[in-house]
Structures are given as C-alpha cells and as structure tokens.
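ENTRY TYPE: protein
WANTED: fold as tokens:
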Amino acid sequence: MVSFKDFFLSNGLHVVVYENHDVQSAVLDLIYRVGSRDDFEKNKGIAHLLEHLMFCGSKNVKNFDVELQNVGGGNNAYTNLDVTNYYCWVPHVNIETAFWLESDRMFDLNLTEESVEIQKNVVTEELKESYYGTPYSDFYLHLHPTLYDEKHPYHCPTIGFEDHIAQTTREDVLNFYNFYRPENAILVVAGNVDFETIKKLSEKYFNRQSEKKIIMRSAFAGNTDSLLNSEKIVKKNVPLEGIFIVYKTCARVDKDFFTTSVLSEMLDCGKSSLLYRRLVDEDKIFNSISVEFDNCELEGMLIISGFVSEGVDVDFAKKKLFKTIDDFVNEIDDEELTKAKNNLKMEYKCDLLDLTNIADEIANSLIVEDKNYINEFVSRVESVDIEKIKDLSRKIFSKGKKNTFIYKN
C-alpha cells in the first residue's frame, strides 16, 4: 500500500507527500500539464526544447547538475505528448536543495540567446541520431502525421520537425515557458521525509505568485478516424524488411485501459505468445515479433511490429500477420490470460521497488485525476477476464481500422 497525503498552496500548486522512513534518500518529482500536444503551430518540438533549456541555468543557479551533484544527488527529465516531468534524487537530509533548484527554474529561468541556439543544435542532433541514425528509427516521424490529421494535438511526434526547431526563437520559448505555472503542475516528494517539513519547504520555496501570463491548453473534441486504413511504404536500406501495424485504442482513463494493457501483454508475452509461436517458431516467416501499447491521455495506440525473415516476400508476410491477428480471439484461453496478468502485476510491483518510479506513478496518476491508480493497479488487472479480452479484441481488430507501415529495400 502506497499511502500519501496532499495539499494545495495558495497559488494552486498541488503538493503530494509519500513518506518512507526505511530509505535514506528522497525524490522530488515536478510534473507539468504541458507536452508536445501543446506545441505552438509554427514551433513543433518546442516543449521538448524547453525541457533541455531548463537545465541551462536560472536566476540563482548557473549549473543545475553541478548543484545537485555537490549534495550527492542526480536528476533526469522527459517530455511526452501530454506532460513534461522533472525529477531529482538526493540524500534525504539534502531535500531542501532540490526545493531551491526546482523552484528557481519554475519562476526564474535564465533564457539567453546563446543557450537557445546551443540547445536547438543539440535537439537537432538528437533528432538525426535517434530518428534517422538507425534502421526503422524514423517510424514515429511517419506515424504521427499519418495517424492524426493537422488539427489533432498528436499530429507531430514529441521530438518535433527540424525546420520548426530551426526557426524557434528565444521569444517563442519565453512564451511557451508561460505553461510552467504553479497551478499547472503537481509536486511529488517521496522518501525519508516528514509531511510537516515538506509543507514548510513548499511554502518557503514555491508559494510565490507567478508573473507569467496565463496560457491554457487548447481543448480537443475532434475525430480523426478518417485517416485510418492507410498503408505507407517506406523505401529504405534496412537489414530486414519490416511491417508495423497500428491500431487506435482507448484513452488513459477509459474503462478499457486495463483490458487493453492485458491484451497487449498477451500478444507480446515472448516466445509463448500466439504471434511468436505461429509466425516465428513454426512458419519462420518473421525473424521477430513485438507489441507495444502506447497509452496517452486522449487515446492510445497498439503497435504490432515484425521483421520479415530473409527471402520471405513482405506482402505474403503481411497477409499471414493479419490472419494470425484475426485468429487471436478464437485461440486465446484462460492460461494465457493468467500468464499475462501475472507478468503485468510482477513488472509493476518490481517498478515500485524504486523510489523514483513511485513518485513518477503518483504524479502521472494525479495528472489524469486517478488518485487510486497506484494502489488499485493489481486489482484492476485481476478484474480483466477472458470475455473482456475477446470483446476488446473484436472491437480493435475485427473492424479492420488500422494503419500499416512497410519498410522495403
């Protein structure tokens, strides 16, 4: 049981405290309700760029990393479609340093022309290395614009577009920085800490009125199903020709979320899964098969990818893959369901052995207003039965709405 308490500062910052006095460390996790879905129209990639710039100094801190290292700490951050999350870990006696550092860059980031230009180059190199540098790594650059139209917040991958990054100015970043307001964030403090002490530190360092202008996330209530059922051929020199099939799935808070999680695990439970047994072990049509459930606030994606064995025609392999996916609903049984559920529960319990993961889970669950997620994960997984899996499988696979990407030499 992960028991935590919370309170709000007068400026709207939501503060959460998880006490664990069996450890000697503490984690401070600050999550903002802003991700690449909030990128400005002409600055795709600006959310991720600002994440980089948050480490380039603030009013009272020249080097964020050095200050943390001086007290035995470390840090990291990530940006995704929905949120940007910053977290650091320190010996619990030095938690005040983490408060000072995070509050200083929330309210007084030091954005210079030089730092903006340097980080634009860093992000551009990251784009080239991570998305163009290896086979198939540009998949997400093709995926988002194909799956979502230009009106959809998920139209652009989080990394952004190279020409948009290049034209982003310091003024653009300063405008985007307005999202970083106390009322638009959740602060989670976890570890060997005391609730009353954290309240005092929160008041001391974070209870300031922001001077930034109010900027709000745009609402979205559209429907982009018209983009489904497309096939895109990517001509590229790859070691093996590849097939990526993408199905739209439910939102993070949808009633089908846990059923989808279990379904994904059943499809991807290693060599014992139907896809692997049939297509890799028995027929040897594919060299490997994998499944990914990419869950987001507005909607998710189930991605089934396979690399075709050498000498096998890719179109033949595609038909076999589609057929095996269609067969799935008729061949699954309770034994496979139990194995998938046990795998998910074990992985989650292992994740919660790490303090940073606990803080991250609390932060992300509260962002979507699901306060009980962390303690009910196991029971919610356990509630998924075979009929729910079959019904959802028919809903996702049988309607035929999918986008296919084929890498051909």
Summary: The chain has a mean pLDDT of 93.
